[in-house]
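Homework help board

Subject: predicted structure for assignment chain

Our instructor gave us this sequence and asked us to write out the predicted structure in token form, then describe one feature. I got the tokens but I'm not sure how to describe them. Can anyone check?
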Amino acid sequence: MRTLRALGDWVDERTGLRAAVKGWIDAPAAALNIGSQLLGAVIAACFGVLVSTGIVLMTNYGASPQSAWASVHYVQFIEPHGWIVRGIHYWAAQVLLVASFMHILYGAVTATYRPRRELVWWLTLLVAGLSVGQSITGGLLPWDQRGWWARSIEANILGLTPVWGAWAQRMVCGGAELGALGLARAYAAHVLALPLLLATVLWARHVLALRYGRLRGAPTPGVVSRVEQLGPAVAVAVTMTFGLFAVTAGTRGAPLDAPADPTSDYLARPEWFLLSLYELRKFFHGAAEFWALTLIPGAVTGYLVALPWLDRPPRAHVIVLAPVVICLGAAVLLGIAAVRHDARDPNYAKMRASAQARAVAAVKIAMSGVPPAGALDMVRNDPELRGRDLFEAQCASCHVLDGLGDPAKATATKLDGWGTAEWIEAMMHEPDARQFFGNGPYAQKMPSVDVRPTDSFIALTWTAMVKGDIERHAVALFLANEGNEPEDGPRQGEHWQRVLGEKVVRSRCSSCHLYKGDGDLEGSGFAPELSHYGSIAWTIAQVANPATPQTYRDRALDPAMKKHMPRFDRDLSPADVELVSRWTRAHARGIGPLP
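My token output:
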């Protein structure tokens, strides 16, 4: 203690620090409007939290499309307590936005823009504008799907502005599309330009607010001590900071979507504070969108700027305030309408679920390291994710598997369970069911093995191809094991069941099917080869070209077979054919995901 006291005396002798601090505390201060003071304290505290956590985040961030997502992933999931820093930073930005909007509303309601406080009011508006700019630029920095597509929408909105809109859009994006230069500009604005501007505006507003204090009908501001002035503000700031920790703990930090992919099919939405403009856009079309997205917000902003001149006697304050309340209410209602519309849209829900699954998968993959080429390259080359993408792009228009495809529009077999004993047994019993062949080119080509046909003439000579449940189950087990690979685990069923199943296939099924190249005694040319049915090699051959003896033979591509499966070896590389085949088989049999 003596050492500290001696050090304090040494500093005070050379700086006069103690006298300066005492003079500042004892100096009289203006009694501020309590509501404005507390909202200002929240804004200042949020800004302080953003600066301090932002500096920490900067030490781990790489501002390039190849490293941005990976660096954020490292902070969020690998660096000890990194998720806390990022989460507090994220939620402080949200609170800053809300508090700045509330500050505007409070100022409009209490008329704190009246004479001698006009500059304070305009600076309050500027704080909100800069806060929006901070959120927009900061939202791009993770370089994930959500941030990239939201910024693209916002850039498109900016581009609708006549004369300079196209130029501004190119400046923001760094080219025709949001890319590396756009990320660099957003980063520079977020960590340097906007914080400096915001700090300057907050300081100037505070100085002017102290100068004029409370002017609600009083000719001069009240006078209080510094402690009385700062006490409530400090209490609110501390409470808000603890609240940020609580929210961060409850949400486990900030969200992180999959790496940004401009070529993907992503249902983008702007940030929550721009949802009202997004919804308003739906009421206008073509060039008229300019009126919705530029002039209307511009008119509202102009009205707020002009309030110090508009709210003067003999006009009643409530009349001047009414447009502000109406515009705010309309913005809230439009935002709610946008959220409710998405909540009722099954396609949006499906796309969001797919995006979330992809984000979870990307995070898991990155735990083993992100390659130098970047996170997007990592995702595109991951067997599980690329296999899913290939299936969705090439197969889901006809098939249904693992949540992909539309069951109501599917024209081919539902592949969930395909190749398993349960699927085969159900298909043998009712092959013309919609989930099997009933909605495709093989409808009515395969008879049920144990259900008498409805055609009376055929029914006279019909005999069941299997004698009871035991034989049917044995055939299903045998065929399922034909597709078994060593990595799938041990074979299913008992040995006697597999022997019985093979006997039935050879003696009865081969009248239409091939088995090891022999069979099709009736010469139908339709039924597939059953040897190794459902194996990796069989599946690859089927995807590459179904019109080969290895699977469905030449007639599979007959033009008369409407809705037949096409061959993909002309459109996909051999590697992609194998990948989508392995992915399809693994997920159909419940083996996936691919390693």
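Reply (TA_rk): Your tokens look well-formed. For the description, you could write something like this. The beta strands are 29-30, 223-224, 514-515, 518-519. That's the kind of observation they're looking for.
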